Amino acid sequence: MSNHDDQSDAAGRADEFLQVFKKGAEFTQDLLKENERLRFRVVKLEETLKEKGHEVAVESPDALELKNKIIALEQEKEAILDQIRVVEEENQNFANRYVEIEEENNMLANLYIASYQLHSTLDFKEVLKIILEIVINLIGAEEFGVLLLDEKTNHLEPVACEGLVKSELPSIAVGKGIIGESVESGENYFIDSMEGYERDFEKPIVCIPLKIKEHVIGVITIYKLLTQKDEFNDVDYELFTLLAGHAATAVFSSRMYSDSERKLSTIQGFIDLLTK
Questions:
Q1: Could you tell me if 123 and 113 are in contact, meaning their C-beta atoms sit under 8 angstroms apart?
Q2: For 158, what's the count of Cα atoms within 13 Å in the CB-facing half-sphere?
Q3: Which end of the chain has fewer surrounding CB within 10 Å, N or C?
Q4: Which of 6-15, 62-71, 95-104, 222-231 has the lowest mean pLDDT?
Q5: Which CATH architecture has domain 131-264?
Q6: Spans of all domains in the chain
Q7: Angstrom distances, CA of residue 90 to CA of 36, 86, 214, 225
Q8: In whole numbers, what is the pLDDT of the chain averaged over residues?
Q9: Is 0.90 topped by the overall pTM?
Q10: What gap in Å lies between CA 223 and CA 204, rounded to an integer?
Q11: Rounded to 5 degrees, what angle do the CA atoms 235, 236, 242 make?
């Protein structure tokens, strides 16, 4: 699929999100109007009750019948009040969900922008830099590393990191330990609890295998989150999955391009030598 198709698809999904928000907002407005209508009816009922009560005390000879009517009106008022409480609770739930969806939409929009940046360059170093920025800004990681698979040795080797010294990151054999097992299975790994966690380069709090379909080419290992973030939410898990695919494709493409450039440069060098 071309970049143009990707951008069109992204724009279409963004438009769908906006339509959902618009419908939610319209529905909320309708609920608020119904709420006001019910409140007005309660006020009218209370006025009616006062009038009926006065009639019972002063004017009406059929006190028993009016008393029954008053009881019925009281019951109706309570039923309407119950409806108002339900509507108010639903209004609050809709408002909370609206905020959640808006946050999710903003996060996904940021991911689309980041994905576009990833696929806008074939420079390997630039791709790694963009990956680091995405993990910092969207996931909220403070200390993490990027390791790529050396298919000759079947080991994961560190190529970039943030908040750490790259030389401190170990070379990891595929299938060995938490990181190696995550790469071998292709499944994301999350620590059960971050409480009391101390950094261990072979036991990160998160592993995100970089996959192209079922082929894993590397992994992102996270050791520490920013201070304002103490846990992951549902959006984070979606980001991990989307990031794994986009980052892997960008890394693979840039490495292939760099290898091709080196080979072409070498061939051109031989040609120059032969033609001199």
A1: no
A2: 17
A3: C
A4: 6-15
A5: 2-Layer Sandwich (3.30)
A6: 3-117, 131-264
A7: 14, 6, 43, 35
A8: 77
A9: no
A10: 5
A11: 90
